[in-house]
Specification:
349 residues, mainly beta, 7-stranded mixed sheet, 5-stranded antiparallel sheet, 33 strands, 54% strand
Length: 349
């Protein structure tokens, strides 16, 4: 049969599974994905369906299934593009101010998927001259290189064979900003405290400003390192604090964009006292294959959250604690040990 939708349906945390054809009215009649609820529908081989979704406005996506087998698709829409896919700070580069979170039951195969993404006047920023499809792979926003065509309010992508969720539209010549991968300040050598950090990708980055604090709250700049500018590969950076504090010190890295905006790394603690051979807290290996080890001199507690902020593991820390079973992805690890609190990114491959 045919289901006629005569007005918006606000999903909230509820899901809508469409098992029949759907007759839409105007752009004011759609499923409003204002929370975690998704719209789902199965598509047979070569089947096409325009998912009637949006959040504050109607932003439908047409999907054609060319994988060679029937599959179930689901999606929802966010009203901006975020650094960590569906969370984090709002990006400032040229873009359509929408994120389409698209999932499918089976792995991609065959000739993949064809998409048509739609947006409205006023939903794209200045500087979006050559729209291209970007996909967040769990670490960074990565520009897709397949066949693309676009209008002032739509982008068609043919033959997507990658993984799913989230998708966004950015400009061809501008990468979405820095994706932090690693930051360590635990090494001491004859020259001073050694700082090492890496990024998975960079866009519009100008320089990294190294900042230091004695209390973890008031930071002052102590040096800088030029940034890559635009990069889609892992970049390694290095800095030595030649005059480290004679007691516990805290460091952070400020990534400064060409427009003056800044984005900060996590805070890293270093113990520069001569008698301290190791950092009070060590996490290894990172990246890992699903198992991490935490060495905490004073014990403590830990919490591990996924990129959406959901708690996936927590517990008590002994001097040495092994945590197993983490699935591939990007996580945030928070450790409370004694009077100190540490936060860093975990990469599970």
């Amino acid at each position: 049969g045919t289901l006629s939708l005569g007005g918006n349906v606000t999903l909230g945390a509820n899901n809508a599974t469409l098992g029949s054809s759907l007759s839409m009215g105007t752009g004011t009649n759609y499923f409003q994905t204002n929370s975690t609820g998704v719209v789902s529908r199965s598509l047979g081989t070569a089947g096409t369906f325009a998912f009637p979704v949006g959040n504050s406005a109607y932003n439908p996506v047409s999907i054609t299934n060319n994988t060679g087998t029937a599959d179930a698709f689901n999606l929802r829409v966010l009203d901006e593009v975020y650094k960590d896919g569906s969370s984090g700070s709002v990006l400032t580069t040229p873009r359509v101010k929408r994120t389409w979170l698209i999932g499918k039951t089976n792995a991609n195969a065959g000739s993949g998927i064809n998409f048509i993404f739609n947006w409205n006047s006023g939903e794209s920023t200045s500087g979006l001259n050559s729209p291209r499809l970007y996909h967040y792979d769990g670490t960074r926003w990565e520009k897709q290189t397949g066949t693309t065509s676009s209008t002032s309010s739509s982008l068609t992508y043919t033959g997507y064979t990658g993984t799913f969720s989230p998708f966004a539209i950015g400009d061809d010549v501008v990468l979405l900003p820095v994706s932090w991968l690693h930051f360590d300040c635990s090494k001491q050598n004859a020259q001073g405290t050694e700082l090492n950090w890496s990024t998975a990708s960079e866009g519009n980055s100008k320089r990294f400003v190294v900042e230091r604090s004695q209390n973890g709250q008031a930071f002052v700049p102590i040096g800088e390192v030029p940034a890559a500018g635009y990069s889609q590969s892992i970049r390694q950076y290095h800095f030595i604090d030649p005059s480290p504090l004679k007691t516990r010190a805290y460091y952070r890295i400020a990534m400064e964009e060409n427009n003056g905006n800044r984005e900060y790394s996590t805070i890293c603690m270093s113990n520069s006292r001569p008698e301290a051979e190791n950092s009070p807290v060590k996490v290894y290996p990172n990246p890992s294959n699903g198992t991490i080890n935490i060495h905490a001199v004073e014990g403590g507690t830990y919490q591990i959250s996924d990129i959406a902020g959901r708690l996936v593991s927590s517990g008590k820390l002994d001097v040495h604690t092994q945590i197993d079973g983490l699935k591939p992805g990007i996580y945030s690890l928070t450790i409370q040990s004694g009077d100190d609190r540490y936060t860093q990114k975990l990469v599970v491959e």
